[in-house]
Design goal:
By secondary structure, the chain is an alpha/beta fold. 23% of the residues lie in helices and 27% in strands. Bound molecules: NADP nicotinamide-adenine-dinucleotide phosphate and zinc ion. Zinc ion (ZN) binds next to loops.
Amino acid sequence: MKTQAYAALSATAPMVPHTIERRELRDDDVAIEILYSGVCHSDLHMVRNDWGRAIYPVVPGHEIIGRVVAAGPSAHRFKAGDAVAVGTFVDSCERCDQCHKGEEHMCREVLTETYNGLDRVTGQPTLGGYSRHIVVKEAFVLRVPEGLDLSRAAPLLCAGITTYSPLRTWNVGPGSRVAVVGLGGLGHMAVKLAIGLGAHVTVISRSRAKQADALALGAEALLPTDDAQALAAAASSFDLIVDTVPTKHDINPYIPLLDIDGTLVVVGQLGDLQEPFTVPMIMGRRRVAGSMIGGIRETQEMLDFCARQQILPDCEMIRMDQINEAFDRLERADVRYRFVIDMSTLA
Ligand code: NAP
Ligand code: ZN
């Protein structure tokens, strides 16, 4: 099936309309008409080839909300009309210990990413959600629970699960003290989800102008990254710090903010950080860790949790032809707090 999409044809080219081919339904596939696609900073990293592994044309998009339009003969979980979601991956080996545990994102073989992955049958590059239709193996499709606003749910599929998973891994619950570094797409979801789990939350940001937003999101304070005195006063005061900054940066100012046995989990920067200074780690048994998205089971748990608690991202809806401007604004951290593309605007 041919369908309309938006693609980057090279690392320096703007996003342009592009016709793509979606595969014929395999037995366990569903075909989905995409209604909304979230715009993740990873989309921008991939389009610009920041990670050195982009395969052009790149059709980004791994925060997908849509409706099933057709199902293969052995796809029984969904039927036409169902509201569904697709996140950052669309296949895995389904055989290894991690896949069996429902931790497909930790698959011992290569995970098939929603875009810029390689289809496990044909070897062809996968193409993401900046398109009108997608075909996905049903085991990798999520159910959108009743009561979740479809027009705002898309960012949960990456920004949501990427921040929910470390909160759960490090047992955040009532009374936990959590700080979030960087108030962007991931950061604002980390704030909402941690509060939903009962934590006390502080935002650490370069942008003093985001203070009112941080408080409106339910955070108790905003610590400006350039305020040495405020950072010193916050020493040993957090159990978990979730760092969402998308570039190489210095985590040394944040490690001493952890209490003894606390963990700073990096989810933002995939690559170099400035060298960490080990004294506060050794002296306080503080840890620096990383975390990547989440498995299908945990992603469904997060969607159900958000529906029950009515936790939704703050979205700025854009038309498909505004994507280049949206990428520029994302680079300047000028988004409150996630762009979502209304895919009906892609004629
Ligand atoms: P975003 O919306 O652009 O937010 C990033 C925030 O980081 C900004 O709002 C800004 O907040 C802060 N920041 C600090 N230094 C910055 C700089 N030099 N440039 C831009 N922002 C800076 O990005 P996002 O969509 O949340 O994604 C954040 C990172 O997470 C990206 O690198 C993305 O690739 C990565 N990611 C990782 C996973 C994973 O599985 N681990 C999943 C999804 C995304 P302040 O103004 O408050 O400082
Ligand atoms: Zn993402």
